[in-house]
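yo

u said u wanted the structure for the complex thing, so here. seqs first:
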Amino acid sequence: MLKVIAACGSGMGSSQIIKMKLQKVFKKLNIEADIYHTNVGDAKSQANNYDVVFCSESLVGNFNGTKSKVIGLKNLLSETEMTAKIQAAGLNQ
Amino acid sequence: MIILLTIWEFFQNNVLTKPQFFIGFIVFIGYALLRKPVYECLAGFIKAVVGYMILNVASGGLVGNFRPVLAGLKDRFHLSAAVIDPYFGQAAAQMSVEHVGRSFSLMMIVLLIAFTMNILLVLFRRYTKIRTLFITGHVMVQQSSTALWLVLFCFPKLQDPGVVIMLGILLGTYWAVASNLTVEPVAKLTDGGGFATGHQQMFGIFLVSKLAKKIGNPKNSLDNLKLPGFLSIFNENVVATGILMFIFFGIIISILGPELMHTIDKEFVKNQNFGFYILEKSLNFAVYLTILQLGVRMFVSELTNSFQGISEKILPGSVPAVDCAAVFGFGNPNAVTFGFLFGAFGQFLAIIGLVIFQSPILIISGFVPLFFDNATFAVFANRLGGIRAAAIIPFFSGIIQVLGGGFAAYYFTTGNFGGWHGNFDWDTLWPIIGVIMNNFQYAGVVVVVVCLLAVPQIIYRRNKDTYFLIAEDYEKYKEVEAKKQGVTADEVVIE
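structre next:
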C-alpha cells in the first residue's frame, strides 16, 4: 500500500482535486494507494511518514529536506501528466 | 392526520432546524442513491455531522474571541469592525441568520438548488451558452452562507421555501455565468488545461484578462526578479493568519489599552502581561480558523467528490470550474508572492484611509482574499501585461477589497459579528446585487438574473465559431486561430 499526501496552500480545494484525480490514475495503474489531502504546513510536518507528496509545482520548494519523494504538478487536473510523473518516479514498481 | 402532523413536527424540531443532522441525512441519502454499501453511507453520515459540529464550535469561537475587541471599539470610538475573509464572513453570516431566528439549515438547501440550477444551465447550453459547472465545495458553502444572509436581510418577511428557491436560482446563475467568464483566460494561460475557475474572484479574473494588456508589456515579466526568501513563510496558512492577526489586533488592542480590556474581557486576568495577552488573543484566531477549516474539509470533501462525479458523468463536453489555486502552477512562482505583496500594500493603504476619513467601520485584512485573489490576479496579469500589470492590478484590487468589503459589512450589518466575505466578487458584484435587492425587491432580483444570463450571450455573439471549441478541444481551437492568422498551428499567437 502506497501512502500518499496531496497538498495545497489551504488544504481545501486544490489538494482535494489532486486527490480525486490521483485516485483514478492509481486505479488505472493498478497501484493500491491511501491518499490524504491537507495544507502545506501540515504536509511538511508529516511528509516523512508518507511515501510520496503531490503538490503544485509552485509549492515544491516548501518540501526541501523531506526524505520522501515530492512530485510537483503543473496541471492539477491532468491525468496524463500524473501518469507520466508516477511512472518516471518508479512508483508503479 | 394528527399522526402525520406529529411526525412532521418531530422531523422539524430534530432534523430540519438542526443543520448538522440535516446535512448528515443529505449525505446519507446521496450515498444511498449512488448505491454505496450501508457502512459507507453511515460513515459519510457521521463525518458530515461531526464536520458540521466542529464548524459550529469554531464559528462560535471565532466570533466570541472577537467580541471583547468589538465591544472595546464600540465603547471608545463608536466603531464596528470586520475581518474581510470568507471564513470570518461565513461565521458572521451564520450568526446573523441565527440572530434573526432563522435556521442555518437553509444554507444547505440553497446550495443544492443552486448547484441544480447550474447543472440545468449547462444541460441547456445550446440556449444558455453556459460551459462550466461550479464544483468547489468549500467555496459553495461559504457563498451560500453569505448570500443567504443577504436575502434574509433584504426580504425579512419571506418564508423559507421562497427564500431557498429565489436564492438558489440567483446563486446558481452567478456560479454558472461567472465561472463561464473564466473559460477563455484559463484555457489560454494553461494551454488548454481543461478546467475553469470556480472560486471567489471570477469577475475579477475576467476584468484582469481585459485590462492587463493595456497596463503593461508581457516582455518585462517577473521571470528576472528575485524575491527575498523570508516571504515563503506566508505559504503557510496558520503562520500567515497568525502574523496578520498579530499586527492588526496588536495595534487595535494597544490603542484600546489594558485598563479597558481588563473591564471588558474577563479572560484577561490581573497578573497576565499585556503583550502576551495580545499574542494569545491574536493566535486564538489562527486556532479557530484551523478548526473551522477542519470541519469544512470533513463535510465538504464528500460533497466535492460527488459533484466531480456528476460533472464527468452527465455533462460531457462541459468544463469543471475549480479552486483558483489550480492556475498557480502555470504562472511564474514569483507572481503568487508578488500579487500577495502588492495586494497587501493596497489593503493597508485603504485601511489607513478608512481611519483618516473616520469611516464608521474598521476593516481588518483576512488572509484568504489577500492571498488567493491577488495571487490569482497577478498570475494572469503577469502573462498578459508583465511585471507592471502584476503590481498595479493587485494593488488596486487590495484597495477595492477594503472599500467594497467595508461598505458591505456596514450596509448588511455583518460588522456586528466581526466579519464579511471579503473576496473580490463579494466586494464588488455582490454588494451591488444586495443593494439592488434591498431597494427594488423582487423586481431587482429578476433584473439581476436577466442581466447575468445576458453576459454569456454577448460573449458568444462575439466569437460564434470558437466559443464552444475552446472549451471542448483546445488543439482544434489553435488550428482555427492559426488559419485566421495564416500561420501553422505551432506558430500561432494566442493572446
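The radius of gyration of chain B is 23 Å. Chain B has 19 helices and six strands.
cya
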